[in-house]
Design goal:
Distance between the termini: 79 Å
Strand content: 15-25%
Radius of gyration: 32 Å
Structural class: alpha+beta
Order of helices and strands: HEHHEEEEEHHEEHEEHEEEHEHHH
Length: 444
């Protein structure tokens, strides 16, 4: 076989049998649908999370306790949705940044004409750019191959066809590459690569490499499972509905704002503990600070809701802090903050604080009985997000959405996609870091 003639071709058709043309394969339609539907679904879920606040009924200032307390299926579902949505957005930015939406023009024409794939010899290499040294370095170049003539056309000689490809190693003239072309119409040109899966990907209309897809999918699975497992282990608001009655402790409290609480062992019990045991038994909690009526004591009440947001919205609100000594999870006593206006906020109180308050606070409202007809409703601060979200963070989120829109709308290849994806991904992280650094001195 000379260098001027194509080698034996191994055919594999990515189209339906019989060589029938299909303008838009099912896989391409599915890919386009997912590309459009996934971001829209994320936008809808985000809007629901931000704007659909449950609110709180007003006017119910009954002295009795609520007979029935709500569980947290909807807040728990929203928490899981948020934990799954964050890595989904990260993966979407990564995939959009490395996609090749403008690489399918010639491939689409070949696909519609019934393209096949096979190995052909390289007759020329031009404009080669390598990343690294040696034969194993990645390379980008323009390759020329000779396509088999159709029905004796072109004088029985091969038809030259050129294409640009990114290969996993440097190629040489005389070597072979996988090429996609139409045997009956060599004038349509060709697409090629050193990996057969990449040629079939281009002919199928997929804009993301298979390796990138699996890396993004693996990242999404691992990170999502880790976040959900951590939430399941540490989430203090996860609980079912329950009835109140005897044995419940109820304290009249008033919300003074958000803050931090150091949950540490009592000083008299730490003389026998090692430094490591003392450190492992101490934790910092962001919480709501609740002033107990009739005393100078403050109870820390923490949950998965931002203490800054809750402290801003609920400052000055009065109600009851309730818990049952048998409803305990880890180092916390599951508790409910019931506002006089009829809202219920699930959370927890450190078990040491709850035990101390239940035993030492004068006159805990243990004899308060459930009131007939007294009802509460879960408090949802989602509708008040615009008043509490920092403006720099909001601006960075808008920047991220704009970058995602550009990646979706502009069918063009180039390094700008990587920069746009990096901007969309890093902008919210930068805003969070700035906010954390500014809040750090306040926490001392």
């Amino acid at each position: 076989m000379t260098g001027e003639q194509p080698s034996e071709v191994t055919l594999s058709k990515p189209v339906r049998p019989g060589g029938q043309e299909q303008s838009v394969p099912a896989g391409v339609r599915s890919g386009r649908w997912v590309t459009v539907a996934a971001p829209l679904a994320l936008v809808v879920l985000t809007a629901a999370w931000l704007f659909l606040g449950a609110g709180a009924p007003g006017g119910d200032r009954s002295a009795g306790l609520a007979e029935r307390l709500h569980g947290t299926p909807w807040p728990s579902l929203r928490a899981v949705g948020l934990l799954a949505g964050l890595p989904t957005l990260v993966c979407l930015w990564i995939v959009l940044a490395v996609a090749e939406p403008d690489s399918g023009g010639r491939a689409a024409a070949l696909r519609e004409a019934g393209a096949v794939t096979g190995k052909l010899r390289i007759t020329a290499i031009e404009h080669e750019v390598t990343e690294g040294r040696g034969r194993q370095a990645d390379a980008t170049a323009q390759y020329t191959v000779l396509l088999p003539p159709a029905n004796g056309q072109w004088g029985g000689r091969g038809v030259p066809a050129s294409f640009t490809a990114d290969t996993e190693r440097r190629q040489e003239v005389g070597g072979e590459m996988y090429v996609g072309y139409v045997p009956a119409h060599p004038e349509l040109g060709a697409v090629g690569d050193d990996q057969q899966a990449e040629v079939e990907r281009k002919l199928a209309g997929r804009t993301v490499e298979a390796a990138t897809f699996w890396v993004a999918a693996g990242f999404w699975i691992l990170v999502t499972l880790a976040l959900c497992a951590g939430w399941w282990r540490e989430g203090v608001t996860r609980r079912g509905a329950c009835s109140t009655g005897e044995g419940w402790v109820a304290l009249r409290v008033r919300v003074t704002g958000g803050g931090k609480h150091t949950d540490a062992p009592p000083a008299e019990g730490t003389d026998r503990m090692t430094a490591r045991e003392r450190r492992d038994s101490t934790r910092q909690l962001k919480c709501l600070l609740l002033a107990v009526d009739g005393t100078d004591r403050t109870v820390p009440f923490h949950g998965e809701l931002s203490s800054t947001v809750a402290g801003t919205v609920l400052a000055g609100a009065s109600g009851r802090l309730m818990w049952h000594p048998q409803r305990r999870r880890g180092k916390d006593m599951l508790a409910e903050l019931i506002g006089d206006d009829g809202w219920q906020l699930p959370g927890a109180v450190p078990a040491r604080v709850a035990h101390h308050m239940g035993a030492a606070t004068p006159g805990p409202d243990r004899r308060a009985l459930p009131g007939a007809g007294r009802q509460v409703r879960l408090l949802d601060l989602g509708a008040g997000w615009s008043a509490t979200v920092p403006k720099p963070l909001l601006a960075c989120l808008v920047c991220s959405l704009v970058s995602m829109g550009a990646l979706l709308a502009v069918p063009d290849n180039g390094a700008w996609r990587l920069w746009a994806g990096a901007a969309g991904l890093l902008a919210p992280l930068a805003a969070l870091l700035v906010r954390t650094s500014r809040a750090a001195p306040d926490s001392d």
